[in-house]
């Protein structure tokens, strides 16, 4: 429960608020008010108490706090003034409420607060994931690569396919959860080789408009299969695409490992 001063007003911690709207939302919540039906007299009194506390503590008060105080007092004055009835109001007509603009600001600020809280939760969740930093392939790691196929050839193949996937993407797109994993793509490659019973060009592992995630994940899956000696990489000539050859006895799908 919030502490109170000797006069019964809430004692507000100065450092808890990022601006006047943040303070007003706190006061509304503390007084259990409906944001669309603010008791402006109570809120104004408690808001001014907050400003006095800051002055008592000899703290600099940002100008926006005084602007909000002036707005609150102006709203309070309008609510206290008698409303002239020159024209009889119909059921569809409602008198202008001077609190409308303030309520609109508070509702909009609340939306930003909730969005910021959700982004913060996502950031905390992301911190629980650890990404292994990029590292070169160890020299002693065996790859089933035919003579003449170099790392530059593999890199050129990936760059060409990544460019094709990027060009095929629409200008705007939705960010979605990852749909491709290295382990799943390893199984997919082995199934394709089992079904075709002949070498297949790396480019033919994809459709006409592959997505970049699919290209990169499949490329990593191919490298992992080559490292495990389940497939062999071969390029008949510099002008022909990289080919994937099946290795006899290397098609055990259940023994897939993507460590």
From TrEMBL:
It holds the Pfam family SMC_ScpA. Transmembrane segments: none annotated. The keyword Cytoplasm applies. The keyword Cytoplasm applies. It is found in: Cytoplasm. Keywords: Cell cycle, Cell division, Chromosome partition, Cytoplasm. It comes from the Bacteria. GO terms for cellular component: cytoplasm. GO terms for biological process: cell division; chromosome segregation; DNA replication. Gene3D superfamilies: 6.10.250.2410. Belongs to the ScpA family. Participates in chromosomal partition during cell division. May act via the formation of a condensin-like complex containing Smc and ScpB that pull DNA away from mid-cell into both cell halves. Component of a cohesin-like complex composed of ScpA, ScpB and the Smc homodimer, in which ScpA and ScpB bind to the head domain of Smc. The presence of the three proteins is required for the association of the complex with DNA. This is Segregation and condensation protein A. It comes from Levilactobacillus acidifarinae DSM 19394 = JCM 15949. The gene is scpA.
């Amino acid at each position: 429960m919030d502490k109170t001063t000797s006069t019964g007003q809430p004692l507000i911690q100065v450092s808890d608020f990022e601006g006047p709207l943040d303070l007003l939302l706190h006061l509304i919540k503390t007084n259990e008010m409906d944001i669309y039906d603010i008791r402006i007299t109570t809120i104004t009194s408690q808001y001014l108490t907050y400003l006095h506390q800051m002055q008592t503590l000899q703290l600099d008060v940002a100008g926006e706090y005084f602007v909000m105080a002036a707005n609150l007092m102006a709203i309070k004055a309008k609510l206290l003034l008698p409303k002239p009835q020159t024209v009889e109001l119909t059921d569809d007509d409602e008198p202008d409420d001077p609190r409308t603009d303030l309520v609109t600001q508070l509702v909009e600020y609340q939306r930003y607060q909730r969005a910021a809280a959700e982004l913060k939760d996502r950031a905390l969740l992301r911190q629980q994931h650890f990404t292994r930093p990029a590292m070169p392939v160890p020299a002693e790691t065996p790859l089933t690569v035919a003579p003449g196929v170099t790392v530059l050839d593999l890199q050129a193949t990936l760059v060409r396919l990544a460019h094709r996937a990027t060009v095929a993407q629409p200008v705007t797109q939705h960010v979605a959860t990852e749909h491709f994993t290295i382990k799943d793509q390893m199984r997919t490659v082995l199934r394709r080789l089992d079904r075709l019973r002949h070498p297949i060009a790396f480019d033919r592992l994809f459709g006409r408009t592959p997505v970049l995630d699919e290209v990169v994940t499949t490329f990593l899956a191919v490298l992992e299969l080559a490292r495990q000696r389940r497939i062999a990489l071969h390029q008949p000539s510099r002008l022909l695409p990289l080919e994937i050859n099946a290795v006899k006895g290397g098609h055990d799908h259940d023994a897939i490992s993507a460590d």
